[in-house]
Amino acid sequence: MTTPQEELLPGTRRALMHRIAVAQTEGRAPSLVAAVVRGGETVWTGARTSVEGHAPDEDVQYRIGSITKTFTAVLVLRLRDEGVLGLSDPVEEYLPGTGAGGATIAELLAHSGGLAAETPGPWWERTPGSLRPELSDVLGERPLLHPAGRRFHYSNPGYALLGAVVEKLRNASWEDVLRREVLEPLGLHRTSVRSKAPHAGGWAVHPWADVLLPEPLEDLGRMAPAGQLWSTAGDLARFAAFLIEGDEQVLSAASLREMRTPAAPVEAADVASGYAYCLGLELRHQDGRALMGHTGSLPGFLACLTASVADDVSAVVLANCTSGPAPFTVAADLVRIVAEAEPRIPAPWQPLREAEPTLLELVGQWYWGTNAFALRLSADGLFSLEPLSGTGRRSLFRPTGDGTWVGLEGYYAGEFLKPVRRPDGSLSHLDLGSFVFTRRPYDDRAPVPGGVDPEGWRGIG
User: Quick one: CA dihedral 54, 60, 61, 66, positive or negative?
Assistant: First the structure.
């Protein structure tokens, strides 16, 4: 997967190296390694270290913390795609007696199930998982803090439950299922539940002095699906490419688009900051672009994987310190540097191989009331409906096979677009979720709801 770094211009490579050098120095990180992916391939890697000699490369393992949740979410979506579970199923259907109430699989994926953020007892990230051998030890006596589905409240125990669902339905450990169904098919041979040499040690850096303290490296037990994994910049670069493109061996591009769609209610502060949580992925708006991915942290480690699907650029940042550099900010900057310095070159325009006359009859200008819209047919066989004013409701539509089209995004997602013809076969109007679109504003030849004044359009004199 790794390609020569000369694919990026020298100025771009220097800007990337400068950014991580500033992050490592100002963040006082013992080491920091990063990678950039474009077009499904790693096009740049870089590292900085406080130790003399060879800096860590893209093959050195770091703990990735909550990026583990994205891997767990992929396993759950695989079960959904196979028809083994439904996202709207209550988790109690698979794990009776947990006390998780009516929280659904989707709500656990999106952190809207109402569960507590952390486990009861000592801080689970710095203590052995043997202290919490059962799900009841993870959830405690009061697992629910909020009504399910009402608000976004990040929950690490929620992902412990999802891991347990995977184990029950696959009749195997979460670790074995993950290795068999995700890591091996994607070639992520340096991603593992336990560390494999070479790997970085986790450090705490004193806030007021340039001295270090080693952090404990605990096995998280039942909490493993929420944050256990070790990985490398190289492996996470491959995983980033998968999250954009999909892989039919693991999860389709359509299911990954669903994973990238916001799925949890957001707080007012999240709206203002441009943050939303999806199904195992975070969505953030930074520098005018949408970035999907996940951050992660465990004592001694910081991590981030983020990607701009529109720019087809992803970045990975890993550091071995408890606090210091802001991994998302650094990763977002790496994406921005490449996207702005070397913008994506679009594929050549290609015409349709063939055009059905009945489809060409539908394209062009339509009116919903007095609002003008354009319906276009693209080479990929989709319709796009866009307001000519540039603002308002828009959507892509795909054919269903029965002469109707279904919306893929925005207000019209899931709504059906149906061409309606007169008895003589001529095109009358478009019906979009009960909205009537006509060729002329309030066309009196179409069944406009409420009718059209028979005197027609007029002045005020």
Answer: positive
Backbone angles phi, psi at 106, to 5 degrees: -65, -40
Inter-residue long-range contacts of 254-258, CB under 8 Å, 24+ positions, other chains counted: 255/77, 255/80, 255/81, 258/77
Q: Which helix (H) or strand (E) holds 171?
A: none
Q: How many CA atoms lie within 13 A of 78 on its CB side?
A: 23
Q: Are 285 and 306 in contact (CB under 8 A)?
A: no
Position 2 confidence tier, pLDDT thresholds 50, 70, 90: very low
Rounded (10°) CA dihedral 126, 127, 132, 137: -60
Sequence-distant (6+) residues with CB within 8 A of 97 are: none
Task: Give the span between the Cα atoms of 452 and 103, in whole angstroms.
Answer: 49
Cβ pair 378, 384 in contact under 8 A: yes
Residue 169 CA to residue 156 CA, distance in Å, equals 21
Answer whether residue 443 shows pLDDT above 80. yes
Cβ(349)–Cβ(332) below 8 Å? no
Pinpoint the alpha helices (H) of 248-316.
253-259, 268-273
Token look-up 């953020």 returns: 117
Residue matched to tokens 């309606």: 420
Percent of the chain with pLDDT over 70: 98
Instruction: Say if residue 41 is exposed, middle or buried (CB neighbours under 10 Å; 0-12, 13-18, 19+).
Output: middle
Q: Which of 242, 246, 332, 353 is nearest to 285 (CA)?
A: 332
Q: At what angle do helices 67-81 and 233-245 cross, to 10 degrees?
A: 40
68 touches 296 (CB < 8 A): yes
Q: How many CA atoms lie within 13 A of 156 on its CB side?
A: 24
- DSSP letter (8 states) at residue 212: E
pLDDT, tens digit (0-9, with 9 covering 90-100), for 113-130: 999 999 998 999 999 999
Mean pLDDT of 379-402: 92
Q: What is the pLDDT of residue 63?
A: 98
Residues 6+ apart with CB under 8 A from 150: 112, 114, 265
The candidate with the shortest Cα–Cα distance to 144, out of 90, 100, 207, is 100
pLDDT tens string 127-151: 999 999 999 999 998 899 999 999 9
Confidence band of 161 (pLDDT split at 50, 70, 90)? very high
